[in-house]
Design goal:
By secondary structure, this protein is mostly beta strands. The protein contains 2 helices and 10 strands. An 8-stranded antiparallel barrel has the order 1-3-4-5-6-8-9-10. A hairpin with a 4-residue loop joins strand 8 and strand 9.
């Protein structure tokens, strides 16, 4: 709790010293996936990784509220609160059965979704003197896992589909730390409204679960949004 008060006091002090304070929102359409690594060097972990080679990327998103504190015409610090939905998927696979059961599903696919609440801290640099300016940024996001959802879609021979979902956070690491880098452009519509668009890449440093197969999440997306200039 003490650290939270220190952080709040720091941003209040920063806002008081900033040349400009901007408040806004963002939405990022993300291309999500994960990396796998053998953490204990066992042959069993290698087999597990090989069995998961058919997992593919999926689309997720990141959205939230932001505050930007301009320290000069070129440099600013940004923070806020973000909600993100990321993960990966395994497309439909046929289920082989002997003997064949006409009442059983013939195909199944999975979607694995991790839902986080995060606080980003990013330093940005902007270039240009016109309404249109180029921006780059680097920073990190500290995220808290609020839910892990596994969804399975079963298909039957008669065309019927059935969805089953399971949600939990048990057994998963609750905290993730994701460095991020971005580059894009901002456009000043008038003295108060500023739009921005920036391709962004984020990579999780902490594995989602302590297991022989280390799984870390990453995503690349187009982050767009608007700022309102307070002062």
């Amino acid at each position: 709790m003490k650290q939270v008060f220190i952080l709040i006091a720091s941003f209040i002090s920063l806002a008081a010293q900033a040349q400009k304070v901007l408040i806004g929102f963002n939405f990022s359409t993300d291309y999500d996936h994960r990396t796998l690594k053998n953490s204990d060097g066992s042959s069993t972990a290698d087999i597990v990784i090989k069995s998961r080679n058919d997992e593919t990327a999926r689309f997720g998103y990141t959205t939230g509220l932001n505050a930007s504190f301009s320290l000069s015409k070129q440099f600013a610090l940004e923070t806020g609160i973000q909600y993100s939905n990321k993960g990966y998927q395994r497309k439909g696979q046929y289920i082989l059965m002997t003997p064949i059961d006409p009442t059983a599903p013939v195909k199944v696919g999975w979607v694995y979704a991790y839902q986080y609440i995060g606080i980003p801290v990013k330093a940005t640099c902007s270039f240009g003197k016109s309404r249109l300016r180029f921006i780059t940024g680097i920073g990190f996001t500290t995220s808290l896992l609020i839910n892990y959802k596994q969804s399975a879609t079963y298909e039957y021979a008669n065309g019927r589909t059935e969805k089953r979902r399971n949600s939990t956070t048990s057994g998963f690491n609750k905290i993730d730390l994701s460095p991020m880098i971005s580059a894009g452009a901002s456009y000043k519509m008038n003295r108060h409204i500023q739009l921005f668009a920036e391709p962004t890449f984020r990579y999780g440093l902490i594995r989602v679960k302590d297991a022989p197969v280390s799984e870390k999440l990453w995503n690349a997306g187009l982050n767009v949004g608007m700022y309102y200039v307070m002062k």
